[in-house]
Structures are given as structure tokens and as C-alpha cells.
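Q&A FORM
Asked by: J.P.
Topic: structure of Glucose-1-phosphate thymidylyltransferase

PROVIDED:
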Amino acid sequence: MQSQSQRKGIIIAGGIGKRLLPSTYSTNKHLFLLYDKPMIYYPLTTLMLGGIKDILIITLKSSIESYNKLLGDGGKWGINIQYSIQEEPKGIADAILLGEEFVGQSHTVIILGDNIFHGNNLYNLWKISDSFDKGSTIFAYQVSDPERYGVVDIDTNGDVLTIDEKPKIPKSNFAITGLYFYDNSVFDRIRKLNYSSRNELEVTSLNNSYIRDNLLKVELLGRGMSWFDAGTFDSFLDASLYIKTIQSRQGLMIGCPEEVAFRQGWIDRNQVVNLANTLEYSRYGEYLNEILESNK
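REPLIED BY: S.T.
REPLY: Here is the structure written out as C-alpha cells.
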């Protein structure tokens, strides 16, 4: 795996999940079971795979107790997890601003809690993006229904021209995914944004501020990558079936923080054994023991 990133990670897992009502009346959607593990495990392990050990989860006050019970402070995986409360949904950029004290003088990686990424090429794209000390890098994925997303228009040189939020007539088929690399200027930029008609600080407005300064890069996720925005019932089901198919065919889990932590060298064999023992009656616990058997 790779060494620890100099960036700090933020998972945005707030919001009230209107598109998933009535299921979200009682439970934060990021705690829903996405095939065989809580959805929050997937963005968490994406950050961990990128070498990030310091992670802030931004969520609702009503969900803090559940997250603490599920994840704790991350110590069992050799990482540091902290929490911040977004009192009301005022947009992704507003949520990012809550992480300013946590990030300090570092740069940051933002990931939306309902976004699932899978594919070997993400590791290479991550290394490229992590190497930039100035500006922002975002990731785009070709979709058949771009009008549902923020859409990026790129010229023949690969330079970003515009980003439009849910356009009626999209300029391209490339949707902006929920993974963003930002330098430390992100917080000052957010403070200069105006609230949208939805009374939110929009991440598209934030990204456009980087475009105006010629400081935004876009990496395209190619055919070997998979990305799901599991914010609707259909996309949630699609993501679950995809994970089931890959895991059943390969015998390898997607989104397993114990495995990632072990392969990164953040926890040792004895710690994995102890974690497996707490899960001994589940397939998940069996898988952890299989990891140890295959790495003797």
C-alpha cells in the first residue's frame, strides 16, 4: 500500500436523505446496510486506501451516538476519527467549512458519504492528485443521465471550461463525483460564496471559484472504474448488487476497514485476530481470519 497522506479527510454524512424517505425518518442513510456492511464503510476505506489516517465525519446530531457505537474514534483500525455536527443542511461547501479547525494548515480530501468508488486505477489517480500542493482536483465519470449531476465541460486539451449543476441540456456526459481534493485556500473561498436559491453553499460554486483562478484539474475515471452515488433507491440497489457480484466472484471484500488497516501496516496480526473474534459468528469475521491465513 502507500504511506500516510499529508492531507486530512472529511466524510460528509449529514443531510436528511429526502430521496430515501420514509426509510430515513429514523436512521441516517449512511448507516444503511449496503449489501453486507454499513454504507459509511465504503467512503471511509476509500480515504484509508489513500493513506489518510485523520478523518472527520460531519453528520447530524441525532446520528452521533450511532456513529460512535459503530466506528468509535477509529483506534481499532489505527486511525483517528473525529465528529462534527451540521445543525441543518446548508450544502456541501457549508459542511466543509465545519472542518476548518480539524484540517488546520493541511490540505484536505472530501468524500460524500453515499459515494462508492471501486477500481485499481483510483490508486494511481489518487497519487497524482495528492502530489499537487496548490489548487483542486476533482473526478468525473461518464454517465447516461448527466442531467442528474453536476456536469463538467472539458476542452480538447483536457482543461476545464465550466461546471453546471443539474443542467437541462448538459454540455457533456461527465458527471462530477463526490470526491474532491482541495488545498488550504478552500475555507477562505467558501467564506466568499453566496448562498444559492436553495439557501445552500454549493460545491459547484466552490469548484467554479477554482476554475476562475485556473486552479482546478479534472481526472476522468475510465472504464476500469466503478462509481455509485447511492442517494436513490435504484442507485442504492445497483451499488449493493455490484458489491455482491464482485465479492462473490473474487472472494475479496470491498470496503473492509480492518483489511485496509492491516495491509497499510496500521494494525498487526494480533489486533486483526481480536477484531475477528468480536465478529466470529459472521461471514465478515470469517473473512478477517482468511486474510490472516493468506498472509502468514
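FOLLOW-UP: The domain at 8-256 is CATH 3.90.550.10 (Spore Coat Polysaccharide Biosynthesis Protein SpsA; Chain A).
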